[in-house]
Model the fold of this input.
Amino acid sequence: MTFKELEIIEPILRSVKEEGYTQPTPIQEQSIPVLLEKKDLLGCAQTGTGKTAAFAIPILQHLYTERNNNKGKRKIKALVITPTRELAIQIGDSFTTYGRYTSLKNLVVFGGVNQNPQTNSLKGGVDILVATPGRLLDLMQQGFISLKDVEYFVLDEADHMLDMGFIHDIKKVIEKLPLKRQSLFFSATMPPAIVKLSASILGKPAKVTINPGQTTAEKVEQTVYYVEKKDKIKLLKHLLDEMEIDSVLVFSRTKHGSNKIVKLLDRINVKSEAIHGNKSQQARQKALKNFKDGVTKVLVATDIAARGIDVEAMSHVINYDLPNVAETYVHRIGRTARAGNSGIAVSFCDMEEREYLKDIEKLIGQKVKIIEDHPFVDESIEVPSVNKPAQKQKNNNNNKFRRRTSATKKPFKAGKKKFFPRKKSE
Ligand code: AMP
Done:
């Protein structure tokens, strides 16, 4: 299947080609024909599947082919709502990229920054508006945005919208949309609350499901290291040295935790930056730019902040903490396996996180490979081995997660002293 066979028009085909896309991803192949027929769509797909292009391309195509009917000042004909600022920027960039030869104008609005540049652009007229819910409502209430001309509406990452408490804002926005419109609804997961919300937005939608467990687990090489919480930072440093990683996204469950990782890395001369909700938009964008430009090798992120990170060549993801929601793990490791690429996902698992690992393995339908040969193995996880006294094995009630050992395996020397003096060759 090619983009041409999907009946994409020439100006968009050109930009897609320039992006180096040789063929549509599964979600694009399934969604684009439906969307070009102006049907509503319910898409169950995660970031990394190519879903942005799956909705941006048909919207651009509609607006481009209909543009002659629209003389005068540009009106907002397409509205995309997405939960985070980073994601909004990324979607805006995608519209700019794919719409490079269409002369259509898009604008991204989000909170946490001065609204004047946004309202100035709105006054000039835009065709496509990408927005986070809070700022969108705010600008609507101030009279800068009218949704009465919207013909194409996209609700992106619906499950995260709900997690972040945006449900009321979204309902308010929907009330202001014209009834006659094409609606697209994307969510990585479909719990009952999401199904209910989708039913209130969509007519009779076509449904496209890209199974996250299947695709991500297949593409990403996944390993887990059993390690005590206190040793995680040393293990991280060890891996950064050993694996000669150029750029790595490190996930932390909390904002506080991510700041702490940055501090600890700083102490051992590893430059890193954190990106999370307490950082100003400017600080986040700067951190992201430094990471993309290779100035910073390690970017430490919380799950929500990481959702908008789109770095093409990211090879590694490290789960410094395992997420307590299994789907989040799939989102995280999906950051390395962007549309066709394969990546490496390493997880650190301490005692408390073993239940999370169990849930994750259930969701992805496979066991994550345990790396047992490293200097910071959590010795409290007992293994059946000729070297271990029977007493200890008896105490272990997590047999499922025992490390595999062999009598021939060299005993490792765990030692704090051994670790830090080892400097990378200058
Ligand atoms: P998304 O799921 O929209 O976040 O897209 C994930 C990544 O896949 C982005 O970096 C896109 O540039 C890239 N991408 C989207 N469509 C294709 C395609 N057909 N071929 C190759 N890469 C793509």
Notes: The chain has two domains: 4-210, 214-370.
